[in-house]
Request: fold
Amino acid sequence: MTTDVQKLLKKMETENVKFIRLQFTDIQGLPKNVAIPAIQAEKALTDGIWFDGSSIEGFARIEESDMLLKPDPSTYAILPWRQGEGKVARFICDIQTYGNKPFEGDPRFVLRKTIAEAAKLGFTFNTGPELEFFLFRMIDGMPTTEFEDRGAYFDLAPTDAAEDVRRDVVLALSDMGFEIEASHHEVADSQHEIDFKYGDALVTADRVITFKFAAKSIALQYGMHASFMAKPIGGINGSGMHTHGSLSKNGKNAFYDPGAELQLSDTAMYYIGGILKHAKAITRVANPTINSYKRLVPGYEAPCYISWSAANRSALVRVPAARGNSTRAEFRSPDPMCNPYLTFACMLAAGLDGIKNKIMPPDMTNSNIYHMDAKLRKKLRIDMLPGSLAESNAALLKDDILCNTLGAHVVENLSRIAELETDAFRLTVHPWELDRYLATY
Reply:
């Protein structure tokens, strides 16, 4: 037993931890966990805990199902909303197979591997996501789409339970080590946003999963459902996860060049060029469900055109005004249903491809693309993101860079899921069809 493990065990004893959740995510980014009593902590931290991977989406077949959960000591945190006689702590785990080999289908491993590729070029990848979500009422133990509040963008705090939930989520995340930067009501009724400080991509991806887990757990205590669905209600804004990305080298922001046009370095320009080149394929991962494509339509602030700008919020990639160490590129298409590990890995791989091959982006688009007709967009060579899960999956399969980044196991399972989802949706008779056709025909 190492000294670090001994210190951690002592810390858990001092903090009166009685149960430990060993967390990980499946290929779709849904959190899973195994709960163990604190007495098993030493075994978990030294040897790991075996589990059956065949029951986890996108993991393994029956004949190769045994997998090992290896807790990452740096992710230790007390769950603030589970207070009582004994506290509950969690670790986020890496997944291994026999011989302590990383499991190729582990989303965390995919991101680790891509971060290592960036490190070979001297780069560190930082991300800062902005997660939007709805707080809906629960009725008879089931989530609904009934609003809990009628606030609007940046409204002063309404005196209702929704505001209490948002406050408690902020307090819980702060207790877990998050540096919260902003918390506010979003555009739609019952829609909220909480932003936390950017950081290393792996740490940030862990925090995205923790954020959603915390929001759902705390909302449930208030009899509400925190929904990160991209478009739960038609006709109003959906929820996005705009993700700011930047590369640093030798401790300095590699996107900043005070002498360049817009003070953006060649590295920044090539990164943006790479993101735009691979945007259609990234969409399969950043917008992973049938519902995601109900959000990527004109008129609701979500981007659907492949372009970039230093100001225009209808562009796919926006460069915020801040410079110096805050220079970054905001990728606006991801939604909070995505697997953050795979999404960040694809963003980084696309950006690195742009840097390696010196891919310059097209000219900026500073006018509102939503107001352009198809003829003008064609003249300006502004292409659209995929309009469906099937279309984005086809784009991914054609993209060798991203397929190599994700690995064959992940790509095969993403394709299988896309096909199953598309078929299930196609074969279902939806309420809209009954409203439209039943009485008429």
Observations:
- The mean pLDDT is 90.
